[in-house]
Fold each of these.
Amino acid sequence: MVVDAGLGQFGDLLFESALVIYVFAMILHAVEHALLRRTGAEEESAARVPVAAGATAGTAGMSGTSGTSGLSSEGAAAAADLEDTTEPPAPTRRPRSRAERFGRTGVSLTVLGFALHLAMLVVRGFAAQRVPWGNMYEFTAAISLVAVGAWLVVLRRRPELRRLGAFVLLPVIVLMFLAGTVLYTQTAPVVPALRSYWLAIHVSAAVIASGILLLAGVASVLYLLRRVHENDPSKLTWTSRLPAADVLDRVAYRATAIAFPIWTFAVITGAIWAEAAWGRYWGWDPKETTAFIAWIVYACYLHARSTAGWRGPRAAAVNVVGFAVMIFNLFFVNLVVTGLHSYAGVG
Amino acid sequence: MTSTLQAPPGEAGPPPSRPSRARQALALARNTWRGLTSMRTALILLFLLAVAALPGALLPQRTPSPNAVDDYLTQNPTLGPVFDDLGLFDVFATPWFAAIYLLLFVSLIGCLVPRSFEHVRGLRAEPVSVPRSLARLPHHARSTSGDDPDAVVASARKRLRGWKVAVRSEPGGVRTLSAEKGALREVGNLVFHLSLVALLGGIAVGKLFGYEGQVIVMADGSEFCNAGIYAYDSFRPGLQVDGTGLDPFCMVVDDFRATFRPDGQPDSFDAAVRYQDTDAVERGDTAWAPHDLAVNDPLRVDGERVYLLGHGYAPRFTVTFPNGEQRVGLIQWRPVDQATLLSEGATKIDPPGVTDEAERRRSQLAITGLFAPTSSGGGLVTSVFPALNDPEVAVDVLRGDLGLDSGRAQSIFEVDRNMVEQGRLVRVARENVKPGGEIALDNGTRIRFDGVENWVSLQVSHDPAQTAVLIAAIALLGGLTLSLTVRRRRFWVRASPAEPSTTGGRTVVSLGGLARTDRAGYGEEFGRLAAELAPPHPDAGEQGRERPDPDVPAQDEREDDDGR
């Protein structure tokens, strides 16, 4: 098997570019979020301080990222903020357009990052002459790609969820950063046990399911935070600009409902492959055990969501636990525990 | 599943007289059963199962890795034995783990059976009649039509092909149509859960009637026959397997080839084997079928599977005794470093023609030490590469009593240390030798290192229920996909004759829709149906239809259908 090292390095370059662009996209989304909070606060204050209202909206754009969450809910503070500003207030007809522009640019950057990210995996695949998820670096890169892809699909169907952007990109960036530093491995062929068409089938399914479940986990975490705010508006005020709790809950459920059969498929194909490679279809290898636990937890989530008294926060907490098990499965089982799935190629 | 643990109203009231003991016991049994089959209990059991499986991921387990358990026990002398007593190193074989999943499956079956009957009844029942006020439903529309009510209902019926439809009449010439779709969701749900039960049954049958045996075979044309437990180095029988009646197929390992990448990573493993299945063995055939045994490509014969699990080296020594007689020693040495295949072992040789037991126990030989497939050279031999590029052995030759007659079992890879400590086994030479090299002992015995053979480690597995488990798993996946993707929804049409004064048409058409599951998206479909069946009238200003939101179902629409 010939490995094209030059091509592999080009892939790494694409990976780094995608990561940097995601970071920019996340910053833009964060700015959008901050602006939304500002304008929201100022709409409230506008009712009380009508004179300052128009001008305040303009300055909010200028000092966008300097989040003053404690102050922003106070109309007087917003007015004080205005007096400190020496720049002439920019007249803005539609107060939200600036936030929207940031958000839209963030989405465009995300699409660009996704394209580079996809190109990276394609290049890596050609460089190694195999599917590009043969070690943990590639596997993690692929999971993040699916997570971003799933996020873009959600955005296409529900553009109003755009303000979640920063929160979806954050775990993606963390994962990719870890992939590029701790988990990084050079392009190389895989060991004989991995040379099977099941690598393409089983691992792809695991990658797709994990990526979508990442999105579901983020939605459930935000749901729980948002509910705290909805129950007591003085708490976690920054979540007030997130979509409503039940919207987040629905995103989490839908993502899990799509990912769960894919995860089931991944486990089943894993068992079929294990039968051919290791002599048994199930042997309680640490990875198999953790996959089983994750499967049970997600089954719990789906059942909890249709059981009276378990809907809402309890079910969401289960989903977050499921997400934690997936992360544990990815890092702990691959890096710490020695098992048959120790293909990380790290260290 | 019943979501309440309370007795139904009939039994809840205070009984007029003291109930008999039998009745009390019956009530207790019934309530226990109801509790066990309730959704909440099932959910808690499912949680418990996940929690109980956790030690299986966190701690080493005896089944896949017994050595790791021993290491853990030596490293944790206080906690280790406690964990061991709790069965935490064998989680999936412990009674408490079995208790949880058995309770879960009893709960599951107790819920599934009545639910299946109910679903069959439901399939035969007619769609529910049209609610009085369609405008209160989450999806609704209203328009007028130039056709009469019968024609409106007939065209709706035509449009709703594939739906379960019932047409009814209401007083005043009103015609209604009720339609339902998505019964497959519940079918999928039931199939999924029934497949789980079947899957567990299949696994149980495999554990009862399956077996697994491991054996090391020299790749020099040596033969292995699945004739009985004695043919194996280790054998793990199922609970109902006594080792008799195995399918006696035979195989010969002719050759083994491993290739490695320059960095020492393995690139491929192939064993060239020939085999005869049970029929051929019993017929006494002389023809052998060739097969290339490789990783990911087991040999499947007679319901058994033969796997290539590992490989290693066996150095071949020829010992020429002073009287000119020769003995060949060839036995597998075990790899101590998987990356370089540095191996250790002990080749044990009995002197020829010695009849005196005491003399024999003074002159047994053991060639023990390290083998390097690609030697580092120098005085301290180690291996730098796993392939046979520059083999060398660094051996001690021991002479004396090997302790083979002591009755104690001993490792084939080591000499009995007791014998060495007692001075009954003494080192007589220590040398590094390359193939062709010789070691001369003081009594004129010469030991030649002839070369190296490959050995392969094979596993034979038998599981009669494996195919059944696969089928159950596929059914499970199909059922699961159906139950999560099919949407149950209802659609209603009420066609009422218009008041004579109304302009625009002869019939007022009211439509209503209700999605009965969490999967939203019914709004879009309803919008399409409504646009065809009740196109908005040009001058029906006040009857503006709601904008069909593709995704967001109304709050009350998320009626739960799984855990009543």
Amino acid sequence: MRLLRAGRWITGIALVLLAGVYVRALAYTPVERAQGLAQKIFYLHVPAAIWAEGAMILVGVASIVYLFLKDPRLDRFAHASAEVGTVFAVLMLTTGPIWGKPIWGTWWTWDARLTLALFLFLLYVGYLLLRGAVADPASRARFAAVLGICGMILVPFVHLSVYMFRTLHPMPIVLKPSEPSLPGSMLTTWLMSVGVFTLLYVGFVIQRYALSYLNEQLEAAGGIP
Amino acid sequence: MQVPEAVPQNGGYMVAAYIVVAVVILGYALSLYLRTRRSLRP
């Protein structure tokens, strides 16, 4: 299957490049004076958060179009994007507290950004549970599409919560209207990491899409996926 | 790696985060590979 092979190649390349990002971030990017080495978690946490949110936006867009066209490929893509988004949400929610403990002095606080990020993760989990709970493919796709659209609506609130509420979470230092407030070498590492996480997202989604397709073929043939 | 003295010594947290990310990403890549292989089995 060509799609599966393409997904595996992209993922393989992304994993090698991720190793390169590790080397660059750990050995060739300067240490931030106020936060120390813990600041380097930023190079993984933010790209993971970008794709945790980005994946849900794509789930929502695919879901809206699915409700009009009823094309199973859109539902398959939404499912793949949701599963991969869940993985990135796990990364966001684990690296965040690991950074928060040395910098804030606590693993977790129930402020707006953190709570909404947790809510996004729970929506992902709910989406995947819903898909597992409904047997009829057409109903499953329709119900999941509605939840996917709800998830997409949540994303801007997650991203803008630092402006809308008083929160402990730092304000954006790159994704903001004015210039990024990062020195050049740190910005380069961060951009490389975002590129690699994007490639990982693409590789994972293609593989997950191909897996759904294979399972559907198996189901149609009367096998157990 | 040279770290000036005034900088907080919290490298352990960084190492933990980098390990968590590697484990989760490699684990998911492996899970996709294994699930696909099972589906491709005749």
Amino acid sequence: MLLWNLVRKDLLLEWKNKDAVLAMTAFTALVLLLFAIAVESIPALLRDIAPGAVWITYLFAAILGFNRVAMVERENNAMYTLLVAPIDRSLLFISKFTVNFLLISLVQVLSLPLIMLFFNIDIFLMMGSLSWIFILTTLGMSAIGTLFSAMLVNIRMKDVLMPLLTFPLLVPLLIAAVSLTRAVFNGQELQSTWVNLLLAYDVIFITAGTILYEFLLEE
Amino acid sequence: MTVFGALLLLLHFMNLMMIMVYAPLEATMGLIQKIFYYHVPVAWSGFLAYFITFIFSILYLVRKNERDDRIAHVSAELGTVFFVLVLITGPIWARYAWGSYWVWEPRLTTSFVLFILFSAYLLLRRFGGHSDKTARYASVLGIIAFLDVPLVYFSMHWWAPEISAHPRNIGLQTEMKTAFFISLALFTVTFIYMLLRRIELSDLDSEYMALNRNLQDR
């Protein structure tokens, strides 16, 4: 219940101004377009780069969202209010993590028609297996993103540090997601090793985030 | 300490003689194989350095001792220096052994990702400035970065199972083994020596800053 209130607060704020989702969606559309231009929209090439292009785009778009969601509490010293409230610190992590996950998932859903149009892939016919890949990958991305956006809120040059810190950490996740997505696009069977890697990644970093988050908040 | 450093320098000259003269030429690769006697010990020391950062990051978060944080910091610094050497010696050897400077191979890629991560760690330290906050942030990163290592390694391993190009179970001759283990021991001792000197320097630095603060308060 407490968790739902925390999540609801952030979702309500986002619903009122829609800043993060609009920024992320516009960015996603733009980068997907740029990828199409970069390979001169040659159909065979486009199909080849689609899995990588899609995940790199989501990665960059997610960074924008993470920053917005972490900045919410900076106004009116709201973070202080949250910290003095009798809430377990790990619950704060779980709530921010949930909000990030939901927002990125929403942007992903909104971007599906674009992927279908630009890359000429019948993505809606593949949603059965694809949605699992999207969910598992976005869980890991959100865990890392929530942790590091909270860390960097008060640090100078945070715009540079955010991708610099998170992208290398996300390398294994990206490789697994791209491999699985390629398999789905080509109509192949999914390799269980990659699914296991995604699961392991999610479990490790959601746990680590829950434990370590409180060290980022102490004032 | 200084005498010991000079002794280490002397030992490194002897190590070079061991590698170049005592250890026989490898049959197929010839002279280029000699890089192995440097490359592997340096890589091992680099990993050791990052492992020490990991341990002292945990220690700092648990007991909040400011010195633990400084040890984690200087060890990361040294590790990064060692990894620069790894990433220089590796491609020189790979050019002859694999035919190209860079192959997307598990150990190589893991080393590179680690190097990037800890460079970012040092940047976080720089942009964060000297404060408890930065120390806590860096500790969290030090822990997370180390947790990521096995995941990166296995993901690269599964990504391209056919290119696992680092030599395994290489049949070394006895003289080669002797030279290798001497080099490994020497580099490990050298790393520990450098780390201790660096900690000493960091202690002095923190003492100086404390004195300076006292002076300004007056």
Amino acid sequence: MKVEYKFFVILSAFFLIVGTVYGVTTEWDEPVGPVGLYLCMGLCLMIGGFLWWTGRKLDTRPEDRLDGEISDVDGDYGFFSPHSYWPLAVAASAAVVFLGLAIGWWMVFIGAPLVALAATGWVFEYFHGDHAI
Amino acid sequence: MTSVGTIVWLSSELMFFAGLFAMYFTIRSVSPELWADKTTALNVPYAAGNTLILVISSVWCQLGVFRAENGHPVRTGKLLEIGKWGMREWYVLTYIFGAVFVSGQVKEYADMVHEGITMSSDAYGSVFYMTTGFHALHVTGGLLAFLMIIGRTFTTRRYTHTQATGAIVTSYYWHFVDVVWIALFATIYLLQ
């Protein structure tokens, strides 16, 4: 994972420098730039730090070795849903809620239980019964 | 793979809060007299207590994660044998602490409204309710996620790796929301 985490750590160093330059040139008088740029640093540090922390726990992956072959990376990648209508239900009910913010609160109260129902359906789709993953 | 996706999403959430922080600091810098006038309504010791509750809930959450990683979704002893608690018990405790935090926020909002600070009263009110409100919505979303993670342990027979991953990424979210609150608390209550 060396390449991945270094990529994000370099980016975060870039944002640290740019944020400081921005702050100095505006005499720290304009808060949006430093806040945005320093938190961009945070964004990159979060991902980079997580990749570094994960990479430390894993064995060297085939893509990290010079003699790695494509066939070395086959195997179990986890579970992927073959098809599901629940995301559609979540999106439709969330649309009712957000439309309610624009039109009237009464729509939010209709939409919120639908969101709860759809989200529960989505989350539990593969986690009940005999074939739970 | 789920955990990497969660971290990437949370990093984008960080930029969402970056927008809120930028808004706060900008309005604060252009109308300092509003801040001098309105921040006296803040109840800092009360908010500090509430912050402590949220931070402690993160500790309980992490203890639950350790149990989930060891493959212990439920307790192996009696309810009062805390050492034998599983992920479920620790997450229920986290849920209670998180719910107390949100309820505490509701009371704080009521107090602020009594002081005459509302969403539409002035710029300070808008900024205060926007930042803390969006955070409270995130905490509420986290509480619902905990319910689903706990619920999964009831609807399945085996506690699988996929389930443990779900518990772990929920804890990532919870810790993230906790850290954001510490930053918000420092900005709104300590820095004023």
